[in-house]
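Cross-posting from the modeling subforum.

Setting up a comparison between two proteins and wanted a second pair of eyes on the formatting. Protein 1 (sequence, then structure tokens):
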Amino acid sequence: MLSEQDLFLLKEKANQIRILTLEAIGYLGVGHVGGCMSLVEVLTLLYYRHMQVDPQDPRKRDRDQLVLSKGHAGPTLYSILADKGFFPGEWLHTLNKGGTRLPSHCDRNLTPGIDMTTGSLGQGLSAAIGIALGNRLDGINSTVYAIIGDGESNEGQVWEAAQAAAQFKLNHLIVFTDSNRLQLDGFMNEVMNIEDLVAKWHSFGWFTQRVDGHDFKQMDEAVILAKGQEAKPSMIILDTIKGKGVAFAENQPANHNMKLDYATAQQVISMLQSGIGEEHE
């Protein structure tokens, strides 16, 4: 269970990662603000509390691995990898520019610490299942994590993969759905409603939980419970705010990929640094 000190440090780190991500997008002038911001807390929890990784050996065979299926949220993951020392922080200022090693969507061939190239929505869960099966064959007991989007879950391949993971009893697979209720074309309930997600994943044979995706205590407890499963893969549905921490972007359909010039990014960063915006917690 998280101590109050642990909780304080995670919140501080999440704020730092949010700032680094906004600064990187600001240098470029455009980016996936919405989906990047909604994942800050869960990625912070994983990389600073639960995942066993080594910045000096990014391809270590028995490491925990993450498949960020919604690969357009890569800038948040890049910020964490830079902060942990996988590559120099200066790389963040090259986001999606010519010659960069940090493309807008994750690419394992370019970026140290990225475990799977993603961005073609619907495919990441299948890749995570393949990694988990490979680990089992090799006798490796590390955990494979994956993050999918609620909009992405309109893809049929997600549900084919869900059946396979349950069939193979992949208890070392923990998946999160970023349920921010928005996708590129608008609100989920208007484009293609996928609720009730808990009932759906449960019916597919997964150990299923639903928590606040910005609450570290709830997520931490959910991950611990998921790790305790002996014969089922786990789905943790995260109720999140798309654009979290950027007041003018929160819950706005246009925040999927939006302009964010450097001056505006700095204004938001100043607010985050001063603690303004805590009402959006």
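Protein 2 (same layout):
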Amino acid sequence: MRLDPFYLIVDDASWLPKLLPIGVRFVQLRIKDRDESDIRWQARLARDLCKACGAQLVVNDYWRIAIDEKCDFVHLGQSDLDAADIQALRAHGVRFGVSTHDDAELHRALSLAPDYIALGPIYPTLLKQMAFAPQGLEKIGIWKKRIGETPLVAIGGLTPERARAVLEAGADSACVVTDILRSEDPEARTREWIEATQDWRDRSLAR
């Protein structure tokens, strides 16, 4: 399986009508501190918007909603793995990615044969307080050797320029949140990301 080299995270489905038409093809809906009915409604809306634009949707954390709403992926943090029913996800055709930060977390993730593994934060991030120091570019190459054909997502403090660096270092996809959502012009910044990752998109299509 190949991932688009540009992986966008949004905090509300209202972003999608503005950003999907620009060319976003892989997007995560990451909603915190909302009631489940709102999250379910947003997941359903995001699913339909993504389908109309030929994009894949990842739902953060809420694996039952991802199953119920027939979403493409769910993203699971390490704490989410304690409750997630991996067999149910597979039975319903919902693929999943897992966050990792250290060797123990990577070992646990690999034991579940996820559809992708995320490593972060690569650089300091504004998104949230992290218990882990920035991983750096060298760690990407180490992780990629260990996970083999499983796609590797790099996340944390990325910009278009840094996205090129993490892809050169071995990541299959570069993930962004604040660099776009907090931009003065999110649409223009999204275009910069698409342009920055186009070479890797072209290489993937050529395989």
